[in-house]
Known about the structure:
By secondary structure, this protein is mainly beta.
Amino acid sequence: MAHEIELQTAGNMWKVLVKPGDKVEAGDTLFIMEVMKMEVPHEAPAAGTVTAVNVSDGEEGLEAGMIAVVIE
């Protein structure tokens, strides 16, 4: 079952910590967004393999609801 990690709020991408093919465990930090001058980490909801990363370091103006990472 695929897990799509959706952006919960608009903001800028500060750092992406995974790439397709990476194995992750539940709770691992996938990426860190900058939202209103605060760093907001996003974690994996379950263990699996990253199959897609739709964001990149320094990307600005990201919208809430965008699928940032997919884990299978």
